[in-house]
Amino acid sequence: MTITSSPTLAYPKLCALLARTPTRFSQVMHNAVFRELNLDYVYVAFDTEETDAAVSAMRTLGFRGFSLTIPHKERAVGLVDLLTESAREIGAVNTIVNHGSRLSGFNTDWIGIERAVQEAGVDIEGGAVVILGAGGAARAAVYASRILKASLITIVNRTTERAEKLAGEFGVAYAPAEALQSVCKDAKLIFNATPLGSHLATSSVHLQPRFETLRRECAIFEMVYGPTDFVRSAQAARLRTITGDRMLLYQAVEQNLLFTGMEPEDNYARIKNIMEARLKQEMSLK
Ligand code: NAP
Q1: Cβ atoms of residues 170 and 142 within 8 Å
Q2: Which residues of 253-272 are buried (b: 16+ CB within 10 A; e: fewer)?
Q3: Nearest protein CA to atom 33 of ligand 1, as residue
Q4: How close is the Cα of 200 to the center of ligand 1, in Å?
Q5: Which residue, 58, 120, 169, 270, shows the most beta carbons closer than 10 Å to its own?
């Protein structure tokens, strides 16, 4: 049975983040938009590993929208009623919208990547891209790199078999960790799509090219939000860096438009500005 709110009682629409050890960033950005645009929505966070039970609760309790992060994105693909083309291809859902108990799964991570790369003025068309990692974020990076017309995409992962599997799925290249330096040599963009440097990192195994040996034009995309050692080392070698907070911001703007159904033409800039200011404030508290 689905619980519906009574027309005589006004309840806010509920949105939530499902995560293992959620950070506050999504919550503060979405709630700032709801508050400043006077929308009757509330965004909360759940620290859970139970994807199936949480998605089932979304139907039962009538949640409007979910944001999903580690470890939920890949599992959620099989739990929604409709899947966008990009979410299907990427094989990961980071956004679910509930329309009268029919759940639609989206992936806004790849849009966050595309916007952050464009904003930084990094042009990878016809160039080589290296992706470190083979999880959900790496999948979005492969998809975005294709949209941005990279001509050679190489996946390097701690566990080479996973890199090989992902490369096979997308028809791109992979290389073992020992070949990292040589595949990065001519890269225009290198993504760190591993959690190393984040609060989720549990081991010290690392994949990091010697930045000082890379081409001057090479840019580094760090998906983790804060100023990690990866970013600091790239900056020390005078390479351009794109940090995870830009991706986080842009994927959240897309997500907010999906949750609220607002027209992007009229609202994109307003939502972006509100979220950007709030994210900046929150990050300065870290
Ligand atoms: P995931 O599915 O769990 O995949 C993690 C990947 O990182 C795997 O390929 C894993 O290798 C590798 N890895 C883990 N620990 C490592 C270590 N110590 N050294 C080397 N490789 C390691 O995670 P995900 O969803 O792809 O997320 C990856 C990171 O991107 C997370 O930090 C996440 O927060 C971030 N992210 C940021 C945004 C944003 O908006 N900025 C969006 C999405 C994700 P194995 O295959 O060997 O286990």
Answers
A1: yes
A2: bbbbbbbbebeeeebeeebb
A3: 195
A4: 9
A5: 58
CB contact set of 108 (below 8 Å; sequence gap of 6+): 94, 95, 251, 252, 254, 255, 258
Tokens of 172: 């791109």
Q: What is the DSSP letter of 46?
A: E
Instruction: Give residue for tokens 């500005």.
Output: 273
Written as one letter, the residue type at 218 is: C
Q: pLDDT tens-digit profile of 194-242?
A: 988 665 555 666 788 999 999 999 999 999 987 888 999 999 999 999 9
By C-alpha distance, which of 132, 184, 195, 127 is closest to 162?
132
Q: Is the distance from CB of 104 to CB of 80 less than 8 angstroms?
A: yes
Distance CA(174)–CA(155), nearest Å, equals 4
| Catalytic residue set | 73
pLDDT tens-place string over residues 122-144: 999 999 999 999 999 999 999 99
CA distance 4 to 19: 26
Q: Which of 17, 70, 166, 207 to mutate to test the pocket of ligand 1 (most atoms within 8 A of CB)?
A: 70
Distance of CA 54 from the midpoint of ligand 1 (Å): 22
Cα of 182 to ligand 1 centre, how many Å? 22
In angstroms, the first-to-last Cα distance of the chain is: 42
Q: pTM (2 decimals)?
A: 0.94
Show the tokens assigned to 186. Answer: 């001519």
